[in-house]
Structure formats: structure tokens, C-alpha cells
Design goal:
Blueprint: H1 10-17, H2 21-29, H3 36-48, H4 57-62, E1 67-72, H5 82-96, E2 101-106, H6 111-120, E3 125-128, H7 136-143, E4 148-151, E5 162-165, H8 167-180, E6 186-191, H9 196-211, E7 218-221, H10 225-235, E8 243-246, H11 249-262, E9 271-275, H12 279-282, E10 289-292, H13 295-310, E11 319-321, E12 324-326
Parallel strand pairs: 1-2, 1-3, 3-4, 4-5, 5-11, 6-7, 6-8, 8-9, 9-10
Antiparallel strand pairs: 10-12
Helix pairs in contact: 1-2, 1-3, 5-13, 6-7, 8-9, 10-11
């Protein structure tokens, strides 16, 4: 039993009972679908560990608004950002199962925008996406005592209230597939950006190539259609590789178009892999081999994590969700 001067955390209760943090939270709040045997086991552990929810939780609960803010960075509004659209769909659906409404706001990353929302009394917390190095949004929310959860990792000195994917694992597996099917000249086409996931996807390709003792070839481009088309023309010009690993399906789609203009047959003359599982990629001929992320599942996990933080900081670590390589005709 913890010493009397040490507060038992909800994470310790969950570990001792062999359940998730969300299940413990549901038992405490008397909501959610929890089996009777599980409910009794959790209640017994709560009693044995003398667990007491965060001191302010009860008073905060009575003042909750049922509103969850999702500040959207400018790139989220781009028509090509299919990932954000799918994540929002999952976020709204997951929040609704807990009687929460999602408030979408545009944010340029100004910490004062976040501070104003914290002070407004109109929201119970945040869901953040599009994290950048030294992102001030989470630091501001944390400093003002506002709960948050993220799709993407937070800085080490902030609460690790995030859910994310292993980006490098996805491109490593895609590159390994190409190597195992006989390709030796494999290039990588990625986005030139400050976001950690773009760097990780490049790293996954590089580690697979190094492991196989093959020479790597990395091409990076900007985010405009013009930039992407120029990169595709260059890669498919003189000395083109036999296969290309792309850090997004959008890049792979551009390579399909350029290959068609040059009479190069994808799946036969050129192997391609993507990342994200756009619906467009599924409908290409041949269909695009890609790394898939279950955005609805991730959104649900992010909402669950937010809800557990409402009862006070849990101190629990972030959570990685596995990716899946979908093998189709392009590779």
C-alpha cells in the first residue's frame, strides 16, 4: 500500500486492476459499459489503494460545459488534407459517445488564442494535432491548468497525453517489402517540412536501406502542386529508380500521373508505395500499396485520454498505435 503522504494515481489503480485508465474513470463516474465483475474488481482496488480522485474533480465536474475544442492549424484547411478530415470525423463521433461536442477553431499557433479559450469558460479542454518542435499551444494549456490530449507527441517536459503512430515502422516495412521482391534501386520521395512525422518516415526508409546494404536516394519537395509535380518529373527522368517509397499518398498519386505521361506502367515498370491510405489511392489502377492508420480508432483513443485527464493529471505515458502495410497492385 502506498505511504500515506504519497497520492495513489489512477494509473496505479488501472495497473493493479488489470484494466485501462478509461475503465477506472468510468467506474468512478458511474458511466460507460463496464461489466459487473470488472466494476467490482476496480472498486476493490480503489479501496485497497486508498485512491482518491483529484481534489478538484468533483467541483470541476459540476461546471463542465460538454465542449471540447480542436484548434486547427492552417494546413488542416487545405483541400488535400484528407487525413485531417478523417480524423475530425472520428473525433466528432467519439466525443458524441461521451456526450461531448467538438468545437472547431482556426489557430495560427498563437498561444494567446489558446489562453483566451482557456479563460472563456466555454470549453473543458483541447484536442491538438499538427505538433511542431517547441509548440507553445500545449505549454499554454498546461500552464493554465486546462486538460488536453493530442494526436502526435508532446515535448518531454509536458504531460504525455498523446496517441501517435510509429511513422518509421511504416516506411521501413514498405521499403523492406520492395527489397524482398527484388528491387535494388529504391528512392524515397518526402515532404520538406518541420514536422517530426515527415522526418521519421524518411528515417524508416533509410534504416531499411542501410540494413540491406543498399544505396539510398532521398528527394524532398514542398507542399504545393507545382513543387510535387516537379519532384515527380525529376525522379522519373534519366536514371529513374525501379521503386519509390512515398511519405504520403498525395506524393504517390503525383507519381502515377507522371508515370502515365511517360508511358511507365506502375506495378510493372515501376513499384510505388504510399502512406495514409487515401481513398484516391484505393481507386487507382493498379491500387496503391500504402501504410494505413486507423484514424477513427486513434480519435477514439485521444478522446478517452482527454476524459481521463478531466479527473486530474494521471501522469500516464503516451500511447503508440501500430500501422498496417496494405499490399496492393502498385508494389
Amino acid at each position: 500500500m502506498p505511504a500515506r503522504d504519497q497520492r495513489t494515481t489512477i494509473t496505479q489503480v488501472a495497473n493493479a486492476a488489470g484494466v485501462s485508465i478509461q475503465t477506472v474513470s468510468n467506474v468512478i463516474r458511474g458511466r460507460g459499459r463496464v461489466g459487473e465483475a470488472t466494476r467490482e474488481r476496480v472498486a476493490k482496488v480503489i479501496s485497497e489503494l486508498n485512491y482518491v480522485p483529484h481534489p478538484g474533480a468533483s467541483s470541476m465536474r459540476s461546471n463542465r460545459t460538454g465542449q471540447l475544442a480542436h484548434p486547427m492549424p492552417p494546413q488542416s484547411f487545405e483541400p488535400t488534407n484528407n487525413i485531417n478530415v478523417e480524423f475530425i470525423r472520428g473525433l466528432v463521433a467519439a466525443a458524441a459517445t461521451h456526450d461531448y461536442h467538438v468545437v472547431l477553431t482556426r489557430s495560427d499557433g498563437d498561444p494567446e488564442e489558446i489562453a483566451e479559450l482557456c479563460r472563456s469558460g466555454r470549453i473543458d479542454g483541447f484536442v491538438f494535432t499538427g505538433m511542431q518542435p517547441d509548440d507553445p499551444r500545449m505549454e499554454t494549456a498546461h500552464r493554465l491548468g486546462m486538460p488536453f490530449a493530442c494526436f502526435g507527441r508532446t515535448a518531454p517536459d509536458l504531460p504525455q497525453t498523446w496517441v501517435d503512430i510509429h511513422n518509421a515502422d511504416g516506411t521501413d516495412e514498405a521499403t523492406t517489402l520492395l527489397i524482398e521482391t527484388g528491387h535494388r534501386t529504391i528512392a524515397f520521395l518526402g515532404h520538406e517540412s518541420p514536422y517530426f512525422w515527415d522526418a521519421e518516415r524518411r528515417d524508416g526508409y533509410l534504416q531499411a536501406m542501410a540494413r540491406a546494404g543498399l544505396k539510398s536516394r532521398v528527394a524532398l519537395c514542398g507542399s504545393t502542386d507545382k513543387d510535387i509535380e516537379a519532384a515527380a518529373r525529376k525522379l522519373l527522368g534519366r536514371g529513374r529508380p525501379s521503386a519509390i517509397v512515398c511519405s504520403s499518398d498525395r506524393l504517390a498519386v503525383a507519381l502515377y500521373a507522371e508515370a502515365g505521361r511517360r508511358g511507365i506502367e506502375v506495378g510493372k515498370d515501376l513499384a510505388l508505395t504510399g502512406f495514409d491510405d487515401w481513398i484516391v489511392g484505393r481507386n487507382l489502377s493498379p491500387a496503391l500499396t500504402t501504410v494505413s492508420t486507423d484514424l477513427h480508432d486513434i480519435a477514439g483513443r485521444v478522446v478517452d485520454r482527454f476524459l481521463t485527464e478531466l479527473d486530474g493529471p494521471t501522469g500516464a505515458p503516451g500511447e503508440f498505435v501500430p500501422v498496417e502495410l496494405l499490399r496492393r497492385g502498385s508494389a
